[in-house]
Amino acid sequence: MRLKKAVGYALAASLLLFSAHSCKTPDIKNLESIVYNFSKKKSTFDTYGKNIKYYNFSELPEDLIPKEEVKLPSDLEYGINSCFNRPNIRNPYKFREEVLKEAEKLGYTEEMLKSLSPKEAIFTASRITGSKINYHLVDSDPEFIGKYGTDISSDEYFYIGLGDCDKYRNITIGIFDIMKEINPNLKNVYLSSEMIGGYMDFHAWVSIIIPCKEDIMLCHVDPTFDDNNGKFECEENHIMIKNEGYKAYFYKGIYDYETAYTLFEDSIKKQKNDEFLETLLADASFTLFMESHYKPEFAAERIEKIIQTYEEKGFDDHLDSLLYRAFMIYKETGDKEKAKYYKQRLFKEFPDSYWVKDINKHKK
Question: Which of 141, 198, 339, 342: CA 20 to 30 A from 151?
Fold first, then answer.
């Protein structure tokens, strides 16, 4: 059931957001069979539970990476390869050719790439990215948009030589994939987006996922910072190490919202830093909102406590989102009075909120 729900969430999200992320529209005819096949397999939580171990990149123990291929649980495989977590490579043959040319400029022949260790390969992928592109706010620069448009794939940004953080991320992942095809040392190493374990908004970087027999090794690196006089290793503004908040974000990133919420609860109880606590509460409310589609009563029992804690601490940055989620959760349960209460609060306290506009838009 856990896997069935996870892929259901992911496909629903794909249907809503695919155009903004250059994803292909899911085949609706195959939706039920995909969900059914996932439901018969063991999930990541069934396989690993809370055994997700975070390492700083410099301390990543390569000697613990399994030599024999470890099969990914289906929900983890789906999460890693979700179109929201992967680069959009329009011309893979040209991209491979251009990447190998850029690698040679840095002193790496194709033969050398075939034998790099996982850490060497990840660092090299980042360095190739940084040698080719310069940081530029391509999504908001009218001159850039006027010249190149907005429907640009990851490999095209590579050829142009300009990009912001998500372009650095996607290109690094794409380059690593090329090396992975020719380098057997990389078979148990997966690169994906910051969504798998990370929590900071408005920035993008790379997660490294290494499944072992009894646990998963997780690491995060930042190619954008690496190329702009910053640190390659991720720090507290990327990933929540204290109180193991990253485990909740790991499961959130692979669409297992029930597990994610349980882990959010654990981390919320231990969190002493108010800035991190506000983020945890807001993201926990999101997992309840998503879980409410399958377990509305589960979500309803917990959302009010989240809002109460949030307001008791004097937080307000995300309060409109929390009120909206409570309104939607109680709509799912059929509790009209509670839904009305949270909707009225939202409209009264945040009349200019995106969520108010969204509700009004769907009235028409």
Answer: 198
268-304 CB burial, b ≥16 within 10 A, e <16: beebeeeebbbbbbbbbbbbbbbbbbbbbebbbebbe
β partners of residue 233: 221
Would you tell me which CATH number, out of the four given (1.10.3720.10, 3.40.50.620, 1.25.40.10, 3.30.365.10), belongs to the domain 243-364? 1.25.40.10
Reported pTM: 0.88
Q: Which fold has domain 52-226?
A: C8orf32 fold (3.10.620)
* pLDDT tens-place values along the chain, 364 residues long: 455 454 444 444 443 343 333 444 444 444 444 444 555 568 999 999 999 999 999 999 999 999 999 999 999 999 999 988 899 999 999 999 999 999 999 999 999 999 999 999 999 999 999 999 999 999 999 999 999 999 999 999 999 999 999 999 999 999 999 999 999 999 999 999 999 999 877 899 999 999 999 999 999 999 999 999 999 999 888 999 888 999 999 999 999 999 999 999 999 999 988 989 999 999 999 999 999 999 999 999 999 999 999 999 999 999 999 999 999 999 999 999 999 999 999 999 999 999 999 999 877 5
